[in-house]
Amino acid sequence: MEHLPELVEPVGGATLMEQAYHRLKRDIIELRRPPGDRFTEQQVAEAWGFSKTPVREALARLHRDGLVQPIRRAGYVVAPVTLADAAELCDMRTLLQGEAAARCAASGLPPERLFRLQALSSDDGYGQLAGPHLSERLKQNFEFEAIIANGAGHERLAAAIADIFDEIERIVRITVQLAPALSADRTRARHAIVTAIESGDAKRAGTAMRTRAESAKREILDALALSPGVASAPITVTGS
């Protein structure tokens, strides 16, 4: 079974609860409901023509995911994004994808998968991730990562990586709004990973992927630090 982030393979949902869950999740990830947005289950149900029950169940699931927080007698609020959360997600990405890249190189990819990975390793954009093609460029980036994750031959690892990218997507979209410029080394880093996988060099593939992920973490945290909310947050110190 192949595991893919939702942006690569959208999930509609078979039940009304699943439909409400995935629709709300995409609204939150794609910032149509930005951090701090407040709403009630009744407002969502009325807007979509759903009964309150599937919306309530969907919100309970989103609460478990950490995407919404209940407000006593006042509905829900979209969970904030913090530097600590972003750093932890990026660290998880580094650990999991570094291992996946090493395993992928060791086991090898089928020719058609390797060809697709090579095609996705180039970025012919105009120096920015932001703009009208943001979703498509993010989709291509996540597909690149997913090919490597699934090529590791470890289903639980691939599933965990897909989940991580669903969470990271919201953070990346916020990052792009704050700092839209692309790193000049982005394409070079992808090529290094593909070359190592193509040659079957597990150690080099793992190192190249971790280097790329750690660079992305620095970009994300530097961009989030530009947020007015971060800049105005009080500085605390612990007592000696």
Automatic annotation (TrEMBL):
Alphabetic keyword roster: DNA-binding, Transcription, Transcription regulation
UniProt cross-references to PROSITE patterns, sorted A to Z: HTH_GNTR
Keyword NADP set for record: no
Coiled-coil annotated residue ranges, if any: none
Residues of the HTH gntR-type domain: 14-81
Single GO MF annotation: DNA binding
Pfam families for this protein: FCD, GntR
CDD domains found in the cross-reference section: WHTH_GntR (cd07377)
Stored InterPro entries: GntR_C (IPR011711), TF_FadR/GntR_C (IPR008920), Tscrpt_reg_HTH_GntR (IPR000524), WH-like_DNA-bd_sf (IPR036388), WH_DNA-bd_sf (IPR036390)
Cited PANTHER family: GLUCONATE OPERON TRANSCRIPTIONAL REPRESSOR (PTHR43537:SF24), TRANSCRIPTIONAL REGULATOR, GNTR FAMILY (PTHR43537)
Protein's recorded name: DNA-binding GntR family transcriptional regulator
Organism, scientific name: Amycolatopsis jiangsuensis
